[in-house]
Prior knowledge:
Elements: H1 2-23, E1 51-58, E2 61-67, E3 79-85, E4 92-99, E5 113-122, E6 127-135, E7 145-151, E8 159-164, H2 177-181, H3 195-202, H4 205-209, E9 220-224, E10 230-236, E11 241-247, E12 254-261, E13 268-275, E14 278-284, E15 295-299, E16 306-309, E17 313-314, E18 325-331, E19 339-345, E20 355-360, E21 362-364, E22 367-371, H5 380-387
Parallel strand pairs: 17-22
Antiparallel strand pairs: 1-2, 2-3, 3-4, 5-6, 6-7, 7-8, 9-10, 10-11, 11-12, 13-14, 14-15, 15-16, 18-19, 19-20, 21-22
The structure holds (2R,3S,4R,5S)-2-(hydroxymethyl)piperidine-3,4,5-triol.
Amino acid sequence: xxxxxxxxxxxxxxxxxxxxxxxxxxxxxxxxxxxxxxxxxxxxxxxxxxxxxxxxxxxxxxxxxxxxxxxxxxxxxxxxxxxxxxxxxxxxxxxxxxxxxxxxxxxxxxxxxxxxxxxxxxxxxxxxxxxxxxxxxxxxxxxxxxxxxxxxxxxxxxxxxxxxxxxxxxxxxxxxxxxxxxxxxxxxxxxxxxxxxxxxxxxxxxxxxxxxxxxxxxxxxxxxxxxxxxxxxxxxxxxxxxxxxxxxxxxxxxxxxxxxxxxxxxxxxxxxxxxxxxxxxxxxxxxxxxxxxxxxxxxxxxxxxxxxxxxxxxxxxxxxxxxxxxxxxxxxxxxxxxxxxxxxxxxxxxxxxxxxxxxxxxxxxxxxxxxxxxxxxxxxxxxxxxxxxxxxx
Length: 393
Ligand code: DGJ
């Protein structure tokens, strides 16, 4: 009997230690786990304000850049925020990396729209380079600009160097001569969404329309490959087609080499990673702030061809990407096959309350798989690697 009680006590004590270890924060707002979609406080005790974000790992620390959102508006009233962390759970507020401007002539004047900022580091120039989706104040989403800002320090301040459309006067590498020379114009169509119109879109109707002024650029991410070549990946052609555009060595401009991905496929929110020589991209469909089913694409080369696969999400709410929309896929430093899918659960009525849905990328038959966890930590990747020594093909 005594032995039984003793065992029970040891088990209960063990459970309570384990539970406390998970729950405890050594100091306020220190975390040891991820709780997707819950309030996530920074070191100052405020819910992290870095929406549509991306992360750069630099000299032993992760830096999370994102959109500052306020209570009633999705417009940029403050700028791009930056947080830092050495363990990915606990984040320090590093302030505003790129402030909006008070100058009404500035493209990033307070009240413009700044979305999905991403930062990369250029080892050759020693500069930190930020790209983001910029919409001009009072013009809705019609400008469809990309903006480039540069900083000498990772936390900023970043200075806007330019903004505009992409690759004016350049054809996508995967558009045929026939498609480039087609006489079909967008003004030939009275109605959108007819089968004829969709066929023309796939054939590059909007690429031709925007050829001179440059291609539209809305939802976006950046990717630096193993050879240090960087790429801008963005929703173009009125969000109907993704483009992947190669950047010059200084990451400040385009080389003019770019491809179209899934013409007419209506993809937004691109997030990309590379594992064992293969490229994986997760995107969303286009339903404004409302969630929809994620899409998965893979390629053996970043410049394609890209293959579309079924929705990588499984389980409850898989058709709504667990009520979220992709923004970035983060390789965890020092771990094999360890990637975090980062997504936003938008709250358009109270944007500052938008939540972060971070989930581990699992693999099934060589393809990424996402499933919901109420609570998880990085040790899951050891488990994955023990179960599946290599994601395989
Ligand atoms: C969906 C995009 O992914 C967001 O970044 C934002 O542009 C909203 N649409 C606006 O409706």
